[in-house]
Every structure is written in structure tokens, then in C-alpha cells.
Write a structure and sequence with these properties.
The chain is mainly α. Helices cover 70% and strands 3% of the residues. It has a two-stranded antiparallel sheet.
Length: 250
Amino acid sequence: SSGETCPEKKVLYKLISGLHSSIPTHIAGDYLLDESRNQWGQNIELMYDRILRHPDRVRNMYFTYLFVLRALTSLLSATEYLEQAEYDTGNHAEDLKTQSLIKQLLYSPKLQTACPVPFDEAKLWQGQGGPELKQQIQKKFRNISALMDCVGCEKCRLWGKLQVQGLGTALKIFFSVGNQDKEGDQTLQLQRNEVIALVNLLNRLSESVKMVHDMRPDVERLMEDQITKTSSKPGRLRRVLDLAFSFLVK
């Protein structure tokens, strides 16, 4: 009634924005610098222009990363399910290694203590309009996934649909909070492709966060050089630089 966006829709916006920010981060981290020599490397200018000059994009990417990480490691329904899931590919040694790595991820003491809580998931989707909001969000994700079919590049389409499904799976886990059957058992059920999408999304987001951290010094040096070369407008460029990296001080 006040015209403000409800918390659930704000969460959805942050998640989509964070995923959208992660994609150009990967492009900037592994960019085709010279097609004739097939030379690949970091594109510092692109990283600054698409990501680091927009602190809100970086914050939303961190939010999405924490959201997915918390869905895997902090919610009992997901942790129990993923621990007991069958990782059977026919390669016994690799299957045992995968199961061991999943358990290390789920029960890592560093993750349990270091990761802040992005929000109180128990308070979301629990009000009178909760079921309707869930349906709206699920519909939006189906629409986004359908739009991916229009992407011409097969590789881009594959990664896009995989990451969108991973994000939808994380939301599915959060939707299950407080949702139990009459015997008190968790009703969360995940399909094999949902688990694969979720783990792949976490991998991509963690790589994006690391790229932002690793490339930040190079971007700072680039901006300092630009400030030196255009000393006629130092105040304006300094404000841009301060804004771009204000989130790192918090």
C-alpha cells in the first residue's frame, strides 16, 4: 500500500542482477584479446566498465553467491538431502571422491562461521501472499529459461539455462523451509539435473567473486593512470574511483 517493493521481490531482483553481473565478470576474466594469435587473457577495461564502476552490481553478485552457498550449506533440508544423494556415474573412484568433496563443502567449519546471513529466509514467503509470490517467482524463472532458447550461441545457451536452473533450485530449497509433511519429514526432493545445476552455479559464482578480488589491484592501477593523464579533471575521476571501490571498504 505504501508503494514499496516487498522483500521477496527485492530478493528476486538482487538474484537476477547478481547472476547477470557474474556473466561479464567471466568474460572479462578470460577475454579473446587477439583473435589472429588466439591470445586470451584478462580485459581490465571491460571489468571496470561492466562491473567495478557499478558497486550495486558487485554487491548483488556477492548477495547471489551467499544466497546459493547458504542454500547448500546452511539449510538442514538441503544438507541432509545432498549428503544422502547417490553420486553414481559408473566410475567408483570418482564417485567416492565426489561424495567426499560434497561432504567437505556441506560441513566446512570455515563456511559455517565465516559466511554472513544475507537475510532471514524463515520470514520470506510465509505471509498471507506467500503462495502467490512463490508462483509468481517460479513463473518468472520459467520465462527467463524460455528466453534462453533464443540465444544463438549453443555454449552461451547451455550455460545460461544451467545457471538459471541452479538459481531456481536454490529458491526451491528456500521454499521448502518450514514446509513439512504430517510426519515431520522434510518434503524437499531434488532431481539429478537440479543438483548438477546448483553445484555448477555455485562454482561459477565463486569464480566470479575471486576474479573481482584478484583483478581489483589492476583496475585500481588503471584508474590511477587515467587520473594522472587527465589531471585537468581530477576531482570528477577521483569521485568515480572512490565510488567504484566503496564497497571494498565495508
